[in-house]
Design brief:
By secondary structure, the protein is α/β, with parallel strands linked by helices. Helices cover about 40% and strands about 20% of the residues. The chain contains 12 helices and 14 strands. The strands form 3 sheets. Strands 2-1-3-12-11-4-5-10-8-9 form a 10-stranded mixed beta sheet, with helices on both faces. The protein has a two-stranded antiparallel sheet with strand order 6-7.
Length: about 350
């Protein structure tokens, strides 16, 4: 089964972690019926410096003609905020990638470095945030003047319906028992529309429990009882904030993956960490967020839950032998970016050969 994967390495530590993601894809290609072809699609700060464009037309055309996009991280300290990063919004909005999928899982072997008390971790943390990705404040419709500024927070029925339906279908596919909606319906009109539509759609999924939680309360319960959540669906800005908060609970932002998805189009997979230019080239970046983004790619774009599971288990096995510096403890060997990728690739190879 031949698939073309566009590769955007980006800035800072982006190229380093993407190389480890490609390593995993090559193992999959070697030991399964998938055959991957990789095509570069440069974007980001360094590209902007060269072309005065953070997403050249040729790169975007390459992405659109591919079956999936593996994306590193973009942003440079000597550029104004947004100069490089707006390339991500161009891709999301240009491809209508309305689903931002952000799984947050605390591996049992990392339980000791979770900042929460054991009683708060409870039976474990395994949450998937389903974030609306194209509407709300991040649509970036607004103005900036000397003495005032504004952004439009626009939700549409179509936008709410399709992301909420996806969340319910995702929960069913994953065997979850509950879908949680996070909003601010006591204040915001867009959230009131969101909540209304959430309840309308929930009527078609009577086998799933549902709950509404205000964003401020959710931020508290995410710390107090994260084990109570499975599938969490929310708007663009809320989803950005709470999924980053949740990623802190699993040891490091470097562990967290994401997918920017449209079920019938090319989708984009990336770690949620930034370009971290302060550690670029030092070989200390954690590649697991990128490797777990490959897991998402296999599950969501290539319909292989089985390979996704094997990647997940390979990561867990590797964590029992070594760690990158952001999740290191005295009990385990400290590994470089490449060494961590090599170890996971070796574990995956053994699993796929078995």
């Amino acid at each position: 089964m031949k698939k073309t994967i566009a590769i955007t390495r980006g800035d800072g530590c982006g190229p380093e972690v993407v190389n480890e993601g490609i390593k995993i894809l090559k193992i999959i290609s070697e030991f399964t019926n998938y055959e991957f072809e990789f095509k570069d699609a440069p974007a980001g700060g360094e590209v902007w410096k060269k072309y005065d464009n953070n997403l050249p037309d040729q790169s975007f055309e390459t992405i659109k003609k591919s079956d999936a996009l593996l994306f590193g991280a973009i942003g440079l300290p000597d550029l104004q905020p947004g100069v490089a990063e707006s390339a991500i919004l161009k891709i999301r909005q240009g491809l209508d990638l309305y689903i931002n999928l952000r799984p947050v899982k605390l591996y049992q072997v990392l339980r000791e470095i979770c900042p929460l008390k054991d009683e708060f971790i409870g039976k474990g943390i395994d949450i998937t945030f389903v974030r609306e990705n194209t509407e709300g404040l991040y649509k970036n419709i607004g103005r900036l003047e000397e003495d005032s500024a504004e952004n439009l927070m626009l939700y549409t029925r179509e936008g709410c319906e399709r992301i909420i339906k996806y969340a319910f279908e995702f929960a069913k596919r994953k065997g979850h028992s509950k879908v949680t909606s996070v909003d601010k319906a006591n204040i915001l009109k867009p959230s009131q529309l969101w909540r209304k539509i959430f309840h309308e759609i929930s009527q078609n999924y009577s086998d799933l429990k549902t709950e509404d939680i205000y964003i401020d309360a959710f931020c508290q319960w995410l710390i107090r009882a994260p084990y109570n959540f499975q599938t969490v669906v929310t708007g663009n800005m809320f989803g950005d904030i709470i999924s980053d908060e949740a990623a802190f609970l699993i040891g490091s932002l470097g562990m967290a993956s994401s997918g920017n998805i449209h079920p019938s189009r090319v989708s984009m997979y990336e770690p949620i960490h930034g370009s971290a230019p302060d550690i670029a080239g030092k070989g200390v970046a954690n590649p697991i967020g990128t490797i777990l983004s490959v897991k998402l790619m296999m599950e969501e774009s290539f319909n292989s839950l089985e390979i996704g599971t094997e990647i997940d288990l390979a990561v867990e096995e590797a964590l029992r032998e070594g760690r990158t510096v952001d999740i290191e403890t005295e009990s385990f060997k400290t590994l470089s970016t490449k060494e961590m990728g090599d170890l996971i690739a070796s574990k995956l190879k053994s699993r796929l050969k078995a």
